[in-house]
Structures
1.
Amino acid sequence: MRLLAAIDQKRLIGLRFKGSVRVAEPHDYGIRGGRETLLAYQLEPEAGWRWFEIERMSDLSVLAQRFPGGRSAPSGKHHKWDRLFARVGEAR
């Protein structure tokens, strides 16, 4: 799956969500609250942490540009997942 490859290779993704084109760093992907979900650091159109329900995403593409890896969360804590499929590695 493209999303797993993007997380593993630390590559930015492009996607459409709620009618807008977004560019983001994919960080955590799994099942949360019974829904397949991505936690990403969105770069465009507005920077910040965002939750993306996979079923509401479209036009997913893995971009050539890489990102360094994990970012620190403001709370310093990871979210609880029902099942975690992938988590980006630490920044180098």
Note: The two ends are 25 Å apart (CA to CA).
2.
Amino acid sequence: MRKLMTLIAVALATPAAATLSVGATAPDFSTQAALAGKPFPFALSAALKKGPVVLYFFPKVFTQGCTVEAHNFAEATAEFSKLGATVLGVSADSIGELAKFSTLECRDKFAVAVATPQMIKDYDSSLGMMGLTGRSNRTSYVIAPDHKIVYAFSAMAADGHVKNTLEAVRKYQATHKRG
């Protein structure tokens, strides 16, 4: 664990590259998620029927940056909900760890889910540096109901992910009036 923490700290100093481009089709996926400590199946296609999805990849539960990011998303969940958006955090952790994280750090406000190796590959969000294969970097997407990516932001620091995705959802909703 100490080695992982050190490697993540070093990675924070390294900017992450942008991943999937705005306008690209978001790969569909199904995975196990947890909300308020309770596991459930999550399918992107089903969530998109309700409105845009904020999909954010993060490296590891209960690490400093990931905890800060979860708290920030929890504080903004009501605003995302008003805009008709679903927030989903994904990490390569086990569903058991994610269930605990969903309550303790996400404060029962939004779901977190297992990022499978295929999801990490499909969303081009592999940390893949310094021996950390199998973990995702910190990348946030806003996906429109038509499966198109309308916003992508990749940076290992937690700063900016919530503010930027919230602004992207606002802009999307302003140009695509909900019925």
Note: DSSP finds six helices and seven strands in the chain.
3.
Amino acid sequence: MQVTNMKRLALIICLALVVFSGCTNWERKYENLNVAYKNLEGRLEYEKAQKGQLSEQISQGQQTIAELQRKIADQSLSPAMATGFGEGYDVVFDPTAGTIKVTLPNAILFKPGKASLRKSTSTELDHIRSVLEQKYSNKQIDVVGHTDSDPIKKSKWKDNWELSSQRALSVVRYLVKQGIAENQIRAVGSGAARPIESNVTTSGKAKNRRVVIVVRMR
């Protein structure tokens, strides 16, 4: 009789363990699913907020582009003056692409074959940084390095791609150090792939060696 009772007790304990163990597993599964749902819900809200911000940025960009077009057309201002960079700067405003491009010759920024900035370049770059902060603080900026087609022979760079990339990085690092947000700016190296003049002549090569600061309005 005692043995039978012990067996019954053991069976009851086993059944209880199975039931409670199953409940625990289901509770854990529910908790995990609930956490996953909350994460997805939070992600959805984040995506909605991002979409709203993007729409607002696009709208603001379109307004800025329209305003610049009016200034150039109605007030007969040059792109350099209308965009705020001022005379003496090589500025191209493209309303179709939604970009402002400020071109700086490499002769101003770098010594031949070098990627470290000349000390005298701080005047130009500080002015550009000031305009970017005052007028285009919420816009994305590309700093694009360009070279001529002459192959690298005497400098330490592997090729023109590397040289143009390092020069763009030097400008980006300077602007970030002076206050431009890191998530607002990036460096791009184009090597000799996008010439604006023929590389046959010395003057053409000089124009192709440049850094272009591109402000993306939308």
Note: DSSP finds six helices and five strands in the chain.
4.
Amino acid sequence: MPDADYYKKLTKVMQYIRGTKELLLTIEPSEDPKLWVDSLYAVHPNMMSHTGMVMNLGKGATYTGSTKQKLNTKCSTEASVVAIDNAMAQVLWTRNFLAAQGEHITTTTIYQDYKSTILLTENGKQSSSWHTRHLNVQYFFVTNKIKKSAVKVAFCPKHDMLVEFFTKPLQGTLFK
């Protein structure tokens, strides 16, 4: 049976949710798609990590996703590399879909808040240390796409990551 604190917290969450019903969702086009990818290391009971992503094709989210990763990772950097690899399927599908519509995208920007993950995705195994040398080669698929200029991975400070709410609990104004 839940205690009184549980019901107080639940009431507070419901108040936050009710306060968002007046917010407008809009979609406006732009030249380059942007994707925010975040992960949360070993948060599930079986110690699996979690991936969250938001893709914008201008103003407004055109794709969002929040999912448990399908494998265990050994560190938060590896969890972030796996998250970017998971997001690449959506990036490629969107690029191919837009190309079929006659809209050719030069580069898709993937925003990430771990600088070590950015180095790993840009340089592949050359940036590996003893913490990450065990990474499977399949997770360096993004490195090839970066070299071909299909995508780029850019740093985004944690407080600007749009996708934080898919991986971490947010409160107050950050939630709104």
Note: The chain is about 35% helix and 25% strand.
